[in-house]
Amino acid sequence: MTTNCQVISGGVTAPRGFSASGVSAGLKKNNKLDLALLFSETPAAAAGVYTTNLVQAAPLVLTRQRISAGGLARAVIINAGNANACTGARGLPDAQASTQAVATALGIPEEQVLVASTGVIGVPLPVKKIIGAVPQAVASLSKENHAAASQAIMTTDLVPKEYAVQLEIGEKLVTIGGMAKGSGMIHPNMATMLAFVTTDAVISHGVLQQALKQVVDSSFNMITVDGDTSTNDMLIALANGQAGNQEILPATAEYQLFYQGLLEVCTALAKMIARDGEGATRLIEVTVKGAPSRQDAQRAARSVAGSNLFKAAVFGKDANWGRILCALGYSGASFDPTKVDIFIGEVQVAKDGGALEFDEDKAQVMLSQDPVHVFVNLKSGDGSATAWGCDLTYDYVRINGSYRT
């Protein structure tokens, strides 16, 4: 089913009834934007997907509790520069204090304020700075300030990440928008990232949660930069119903349309994160087909995209296809190694799991493109999947060698 989605501007505030702001609370150096606020004019159905890391930050714990308890939200406050993770007994009260300040300033129930943080782990949150900046964040709320909000949640990101689409569902125009941050500590099972998706569709908390979990499986859980899964990863979705469509129900044509629109937004944001990997120069897109199952294809594609050896080869423009086959072999996917065909762009570099004469110069041209496309045919079934990563460069070590200091 095609959605006929139209890509539009506006990011997280593109849907009806949403506004945002981005201000400086003094958490980053040089008065950079570091505090974002997202607001819905009316209560919105809320859903979330979170990191699988056993070590989880206080803001994530609080947000998950509030979504599970009520399924509704009006606002999300997001700070960059400090993760409020591994901060002991003060972590949760600090997260609550920031949400209380927002609730008071907006005149809404505190349990309908969610919170997210990103930045350095193990340093107490300068919560007084955040509370002091909340009035400015509230006063700056507007449809136009989506760009400022997307900038305020950045850490080592080089570029802000926004995307929005419109589509027709039940003869009503529905908008889905989003913003995300992420550049390092990116790996499947919620890559290290924060993402916030808004929609004006009429959909319940439970059905939105179902759609979000399904979408994550094919988008954010299919990107990798460096193999690290963080303590603060979360994807939050808010649906305020202002589009006025008939309520979207599971197993309907309307659900499939909404799902495809949500998938397009999340996939676009996920690819932006992978392309903006710390120190990266090129996006890598790995497509695996011919797997015994979709799960096998996902395992295989993620393994290749995450192989540090292959990522380094892409940086050096070296068509070292043996690293691809090696990554397939330890992926956990089921296949016959003697059947595997591998292509780098238009150049076939391996056939039936073995060496093949190919034009090295043309392969180098394929490895110079952005994105670099890798195609693998396992010839063992009908399963297929795509994963995204980035090349591994000298700058990755430089950035992470001094991230805290």
Q: What does it look like?
A:
Keywords: Acyltransferase, Amino-acid biosynthesis, Arginine biosynthesis, Autocatalytic cleavage, Cytoplasm, Multifunctional enzyme, Transferase. It comes from Desulforamulus ferrireducens. One of its GO terms (molecular function) is L-glutamate N-acetyltransferase activity, acting on acetyl-L-ornithine as donor. Its EC number is 2.3.1.35, 2.3.1.1. One of its GO terms (cellular component) is cytoplasm. This protein is of the alpha+beta class and 405 residues long. The protein folds into 2 domains: 6-275, 4-Layer Sandwich (L-amino peptidase D-ALA esterase/amidase), CATH 3.60.70.12; 283-402, ArgJ beta chain, C-terminal domain (Ubiquitin-like (UB roll), Roll), CATH 3.10.20. It has 11 helices and 15 strands. It has helices at 58-70, 91-106, 127-139, 146-152, 205-218, 253-275, 294-306, 308-315, 321-329, 360-368, 394-401, and strands at 6-7, 18-23, 35-50, 72-82, 113-120, 161-169, 172-181, 194-199, 234-239, 283-291, 341-344, 347-351, 354-355, 372-377, 383-390. Strands 1, 2, 3, 4, 5, 6, 7, 8 and 9 form a 9-stranded mixed sheet that branches. Strands 13-12-11-14-10-15 form a 6-stranded mixed sheet. Strand 6 and strand 7 (172-181) form a beta hairpin. Helix 1 (58-70) packs across helix 2, helix 2 packs parallel to helix 3 (127-139) and helix 7 (294-306) packs across helix 9. The longest helix is centred in the middle third of the chain and has 23 residues, at 253-275. It is globular, with a radius of gyration of 21 Å. The termini are far apart. The model is unreliable at 184-188 (pLDDT under 50).
